[in-house]
Design brief:
This protein has 6 helices and 6 strands, in the order E-E-H-E-E-H-E-E-H-H-H-H. The protein has helices at residues 19-27, 73-79, 116-122, 127-130, 143-150, 153-156, and strands at 3-7, 13-18, 31-43, 48-57, 93-96, 111-114. The strands form 2 sheets. It has a 4-stranded mixed sheet with strand order 2-1-4-3, sandwiched between helices. A two-stranded antiparallel ribbon has the order 5-6. A hairpin with a 4-residue loop joins strand 3 (31-43) and strand 4 (48-57). The longest helix has 9 residues, at 19-27. The radius of gyration is 19 Å and the shape is elongated. It starts with a strand and ends in an 11-residue tail after the last helix.
Length: 167
């Protein structure tokens, strides 16, 4: 199912929702379509609107300030674009740079996406002890960057440049 980015009235990213929820928000006049999939439309007896990729709420929603993005395994895989931090192949697991048995925790800076082979080869050691090199250092995304990363690279083709992630 397609994900749609929801922007606040001030154009700040709030969440991603399913296509069905996005269409309902637009039909209830609670949101407007800011960017649509080219050539795709939602049609019914009395409805004909473009399939939304990005919608903006009509009224500002006050959101409690979130200083940090919550850590999750899925978030780490999305942040690293499902690429292994050790070999660059497709990642299916999350590896702790400093193993949990040695005091490493579930944090953005201590976890990287990894393929099962490299995760098994590294085992209960640090990358230096295992003779492995981390290709891309882990980083902590901001809450809004985490939302934009959740859309995935395939969804970014054709989005407006004002929504681009900072390099």
């Amino acid at each position: 199912m397609r994900e749609t980015l929801v922007l606040n009235a001030s154009f700040e990213p709030l969440a991603t929702v399913a296509l069905r929820r996005a269409v309902v928000l637009v039909l209830q006049d609670k949101a407007v379509v800011e960017h649509a999939h080219p050539g795709l439309r939602v049609r019914a007896a009395d409805v004909d609107l473009p399939v939304p990729r990005v919608i903006r709420l009509c009224r500002y929603v006050r959101v409690p300030f979130r200083q940090r993005a919550p850590w999750s395994r899925r978030g780490v895989l999305v942040r690293d674009q499902h690429r292994c931090a050790y070999c660059g192949r497709r990642a299916t697991t999350v590896d702790h740079v400093v193993p949990r048995s040695r005091g490493g925790g579930d944090t953005w800076l201590n976890t990287v996406a990894s393929c099962a082979e490299d995760n098994h080869r590294k085992a209960d050691r640090t990358p230096e002890q295992a003779g492995m090199r981390v290709l891309k250092a882990p980083f902590e995304p901001t809450p809004s960057d985490a939302l934009l990363l959740a859309l995935g690279a395939a969804e970014w083709d054709g989005l407006p440049e004002w929504l681009a992630l900072p390099a």
